[in-house]
């Protein structure tokens, strides 16, 4: 396993890439409403990313089953957990939720973040799922400090979500990130405190709880990209890229612009 510790200069470049991801997601928030297609959102995202001098990392990302991802963002609606392909046939409607996962490459380094948005008025039980999933992300981040272990992150996420009787998807994980979008190590959303790889200052990782309203069991869609809950109940996905530090993790991505817009 090759894990690359980043220098302060490299972390600064990653911070820039990740802040652009946050700004892209905030730009998309302005367009999320009933009647909008996920393909329209993809076009907005790609234009925004390229206008800011970056490359949308997801576009043409290779699939182990063959082919490559055809879009710049993943748009996962309702029961789709991750990797939903934008389409002019997927039209958002009142009460939907949509998880938008976005990646950029800027000056040789990658940013990666995801946010689950409400489309209009959403059922209280779904809003609660989103609230708890986002909380679990920050509980995982609290464990991402030098001297802790990868298992501490997963255990914190798992315990918080399962205490609310939600499913924690196990087939998909967070990951290291840097010059490549996906680096070692894997960061599961479940685990045991004190287990797994020792975290060191300078490691950069993407922590991304993928949490379901019902069963944690999932299926792959026929397109070999999208992952959907087996019981077709809703799923939420939030992700930050963080730098492991001594004492407290540094969150390199940001939800600030999104949350400011949502509060307007």
Which structural class best describes the helix and strand composition? Answer: alpha+beta
Give the uncertain stretches in residue-range form: none
| Rg result | 17 Å
CATH class: Alpha Beta
Percent strand equals 15-25%
**Average pLDDT, all residues:** 97
Order of helices and strands: HHEEEEEHHEEEEEEEEEEH
Instruction: Please state how the strands of the largest beta sheet are arranged side by side.
Output: 8-7-9-14-15
Span between N and C termini?
45 Å
Percent helix: 25-40%
The total tally of domains equals 1
Q: What name does the CATH topology carry?
A: Creatine Amidinohydrolase
How many beta strands in the DSSP annotation?
Answer: 15
Largest sheet: 5 strands, antiparallel
Provide a count of the helices.
5
CATH homologous superfamily annotation: Creatinase/methionine aminopeptidase superfamily
- What CATH architecture label applies? Alpha-Beta Complex
Backbone shape = globular
Brief account:
Helix content is 28%, strand content 23%.
Describe it for me?
The chain is an alpha+beta fold. The protein has one domain: Creatine Amidinohydrolase (Alpha-Beta Complex), CATH 3.90.230.10. 28% of the residues lie in helices and 23% in strands. The chain is built from 5 helices and 15 strands. It has helices at residues 8-29, 38-51, 124-142, 150-162, 256-262; strands at residues 55-56, 73-77, 80-82, 97-106, 109-118, 167-168, 174-176, 183-187, 204-207, 210-212, 218-220, 227-229, 235-237, 240-243, 250-251. It has a 5-stranded antiparallel beta sheet with strand order 8-7-9-14-15. Strand 11 and strand 12 form a beta hairpin. Helix 1 (8-29) crosses helix 2 and helix 1 packs parallel to helix 5. The radius of gyration is 17 Å and the shape is globular. The mean pLDDT is 97.
């Amino acid at each position: 396993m090759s894990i690359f510790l980043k220098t302060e200069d490299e972390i600064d470049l990653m911070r820039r890439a990740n802040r652009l991801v946050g700004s892209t997601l905030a730009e998309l928030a302005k367009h999320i409403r009933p009647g909008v297609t996920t393909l329209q959102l993809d076009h907005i995202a790609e234009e925004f990313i390229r206008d800011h001098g970056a490359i949308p990392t997801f576009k043409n990302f290779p699939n182990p089953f063959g082919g490559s991802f055809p879009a710049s963002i993943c748009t996962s609606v309702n029961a789709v957990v991750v990797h939903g392909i934008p389409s002019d046939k997927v039209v958002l409607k009142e009460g939907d939720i949509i998880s938008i996962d976005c990646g950029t490459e800027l000056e040789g380094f990658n940013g990666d973040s995801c946010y689950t948005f409400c489309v209009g008025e959403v059922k209280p039980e779904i809003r609660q799922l989103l609230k708890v999933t986002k909380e679990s992300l920050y509980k995982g981040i609290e464990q991402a400090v030098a001297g802790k272990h990868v298992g501490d992150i997963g255990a914190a996420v798992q315990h918080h979500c399962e205490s609310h009787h939600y499913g924690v998807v196990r087939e998909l994980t967070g990951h290291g990130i840097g010059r490549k979008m996906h680096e070692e190590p894997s960061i599961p959303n479940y685990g045991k405190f004190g287990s797994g790889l020792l975290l060191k200052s300078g490691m950069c990782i993407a922590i991304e709880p993928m949490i379901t309203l019902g069963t944690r069991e999932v299926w792959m869609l026929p397109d070999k990209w999208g992952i959907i809950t087996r019981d077709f109940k809703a799923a939420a996905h939030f992700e930050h890229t963080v730098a492991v530090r001594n004492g407290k993790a540094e969150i390199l991505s940001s939800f600030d612009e999104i949350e400011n817009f949502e509060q307007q």
